[in-house]
Amino acid sequence: MSDFNIYNSLDRIKSEGDIFKPVLGKGINLEKVIKKFNKEKLLKN
User: How far apart (Å, rounded) are the C-alpha atoms in residues 41 and 33?
Assistant: First the structure.
């Protein structure tokens, strides 16, 4: 952790690339998720 800091961050990004890219997808449709959650919640009650 101490090897990575604000002063060497750009060099690290250039050499390593975006280290979060493999875990970040296109995302989700949060509105759709909320609607589905609310619908399932109503069915349980």
Answer: 12
For residue 27, give the H/E element and its range: none
pLDDT digits (tens, 9 = 90+) for 1-31: 678 889 998 998 899 898 888 888 888 899 9
Asked if 4 and 12 count as a contact pair (C-beta separation under 8 A), the reply is yes
Structure tokens given for 35: 């609607």
In the chain, what are the domain boundaries?
9-44
Q: Which long-range contacts (CB under 8 A, 24 or more apart) does 26-32 make?
A: none
